[in-house]
Amino acid sequence: MNPKVDAFVAQAKRWRGELEALRQILLEFPLTEEIKWGKPCYVFNNTNLFILAETKEYCILALFNGALLKDPMGLLVRPGENTQAGRQLCFNEVSQINKLSSTIRDYIGESIEAEKAGLKLPKLGALVLVEELAQKLDKSPALKAAFHSLTPGRQRAYNLFFSAPKQSQTRLNRIEKSTAQILAGKGLNDR
Predict the structure, then answer these.
(1) Is 172 exposed, middle or buried (0-12, 13-18, 19+ CB in 10 A)?
(2) For the whole model, what pTM was predicted?
(3) In what order do the strands lie in the sheet with 59-63?
(4) pLDDT score of 13
(5) Does residue 122 have a pLDDT over 80?
């Protein structure tokens, strides 16, 4: 048990019981308990596998490789339409966790086994940049170098953000507003 996670759970206002229940289940497995991104994170062989989080609506057990798991009950939720591997379980009562504790343990065990086996999702195809971004990168070698030095996930996030508007001018405005952040080596949501 990590004292930093003790402190995180102790200061939780709304979901303390749910966090404690999920934590106890996670601690039954050979996982290292850490704080990452300000949340309790559970690591196996130096790979992040699980994270606990809170929202206004529920307490979350996020599974970083959840898309690899069998989900016969259909409990695993994709957090966003562009999420590739991550899945989550959402709870708003300790009784839900208690009722599903066997299934939660199965998911945790299967996640660990998938990591041991080196299972990965198929690689995504090459990133096809929105036209306005491709043109901007061709005109600015510094921006092009900075963009391509970002992680693939950050590149995808920017590309999705830039491609969402229907009007070209809106796409260009988003690119202009994000240029300084890209040049600084930051992702779309980095501060």
Answers:
(1) middle
(2) 0.71
(3) 32-36, 39-44, 47-54, 59-63, 87-91
(4) 87
(5) no
According to DSSP, the residues that pair with 164 across neighbouring strands are none
Rounded Cα gap, residues 102 and 13, in angstroms? 26
CA distance 124 to 28: 34
Q: Locate the DSSP E strands across the chain.
A: 32-36, 39-44, 47-54, 59-63, 87-91
What are the Cα distances from residue 42, in Å, to 5, 9, 34, 35, 36? 11, 14, 6, 8, 9
The tokens of 88 are what?
């989550």
Give the integer Cα–Cα distance in Å for 9 and 17. 9
Q: Tokens for 45?
A: 């062989």
Domains annotated for the chain, with CATH where assigned, are: 3-116 (3.90.1150.200), 131-183 (no CATH)
Confidence of residue 174 (pLDDT cuts 50, 70, 90): very high
- Write the CA distances from 6 to 9, 20, 24, 42, 61, integer angstroms: 5, 9, 12, 14, 17
